[in-house]
Structure formats: C-alpha cells, structure tokens
Amino acid sequence: FRCPTHMYHFTTLLLILTWITRSRTSLPVYHVVGAESLYDAGFRHGQMAAAAINGYLQSKEIAALRQFVNATAVGSAAFAHLRADTTARFPAYTLEVEGIAAGAQVDVHDIWLVNLLEELENLMPAGATRDGVGHCSDFMANSEQGLWHGHNEDWTDDVRPFVYLVTYTSSRGQFAGVGGLCYAGMILGNAITFNEHGLAFTQNALAPTHSKASGLASNFVQRALTEASTLDEAIARLRVHNQPLG
C-alpha cells in the first residue's frame, strides 16, 4: 500500500526530519512485507531495528524508567496494572510487543517499558525524565491545492537518534496495512501513522497533573486506531474508556 499523499501534503515528514537531522543525516525505513501475524510483523520489525532498539534501551531515559518500575512500589504496581489491563483489551497487539522483543533479542519487559513510557513517566517525580512542558504540536490549513497538515515531533533528546519509519503488510489480510514513524521498540501508532484505508493521524503528548496508575496505555489505543477505515470508526476507537491520561 502507499502512504495516502493524495489526501495530505505531509509537511509532517519535513518537520520530523528537521528534528532528527540535528543529530543524524538519514532516517532508516524498514518494510515488513506479507507478515503471517502481528507477532511475525513485530519479530521482523525487531530484527531490522535491533540496533536502534538496543541503543534506546541503554539511554538515560529508559534507565530512569527501569529504576522507577524495578525499585519503587508505585512504579512496580503501575507497570503491572497497565500491562495487565492493556493485555486484556488488546491481546493481538501484545503479541506484536512480544515479537519485537524476540526479533531484537531483548527482554520483553523492556519493550513493555518503552510502550508504557508516557503513562509511567507521568507518574514519576517531577523532573525525573522530561521537563513537564508540551512537546509535539500540529497545525492545519486549507488551500485550493488541498489540506496541509504539519506536525513537529520532539520527544526527548535520548530517543532522537533511535527513530525510524516502518511499514507492515499482511499475507492474507489478517490486519490492515500500516506504516509510520516509530520510536525504537514501540508498536506502530505512537507517532505519525497512516494505513491502507487512507487514514493518517498524529498525536501530541500531554502531561496531566494527575493520572491513573492503571488502564489502557495510549500506544495501544492508537495502535487500534490503525485498523479504522472511516473517520467515524476512528473516533469511536479513540473514545474507549479507562485511559490513564484522559
């Protein structure tokens, strides 16, 4: 499938490249073609992106996150609840997580850490990882040539060297073809994402003062969004209850 450029002018990609090229000169692109399952897609994703995944797992950001989960009661309980609640609601996508871990030859616990990152970091003491201010932003404009959608991608400096583009297609239509920008080790949907139905979306991180230590992780809610074929279906998938960050 192709990125739906007939629908959008992706100034987004230019802004992403601006962020990335502050520390690198190219953006890797990985294609998973004809995957037999989401586990298989994740496994091949993990194999191709293994160097980036291992690099991010050795960063200060993930070390602080690992310390929070492994050495504090709050972090340990939050990790367990978030993982259990998310697995119960999205079992197929947890197989993608397991596949990424196996392909990259890393502990699946660490890939879960990365995929629960936003919820867990929001429970950490102020200043432990991020500065608490907003990060990504979007702007949209209409013109005679169509709709323009701009998005800046600006998470931590730790992850910038370890992002890449990845696409999945399935062998027999088991899941919708999907592609987008990935932070190393994360399932698709966490950053700019598009699917074979012409749906494209971005997301902006917010840090509410109070958030729950359980519920459905945003990465997985957004991953489910990639299966939508209409705008109404996409909205319904985003309105799922029990999201820790609101």
Automatic annotation (TrEMBL):
<dbReference type="Pfam" id="PF03417">
    <property type="entry name" value="AAT"/>
</dbReference>
<dbReference type="InterPro" id="IPR005079">
    <property type="entry name" value="Peptidase_C45_hydrolase"/>
</dbReference>
<feature type="domain" description="Peptidase C45 hydrolase">
    <location>
        <begin position="143"/>
        <end position="241"/>
    </location>
</feature>
<dbReference type="InterPro" id="IPR047794">
    <property type="entry name" value="C45_proenzyme-like"/>
</dbReference>
<feature type="signal peptide">
    <location>
        <begin position="1"/>
        <end position="25"/>
    </location>
</feature>
<dbReference type="InterPro" id="IPR047801">
    <property type="entry name" value="Peptidase_C45"/>
</dbReference>
<protein>
    <recommendedName>
        <fullName>Peptidase C45 hydrolase domain-containing protein</fullName>
    </recommendedName>
</protein>
<keyword id="KW-0732">Signal</keyword>
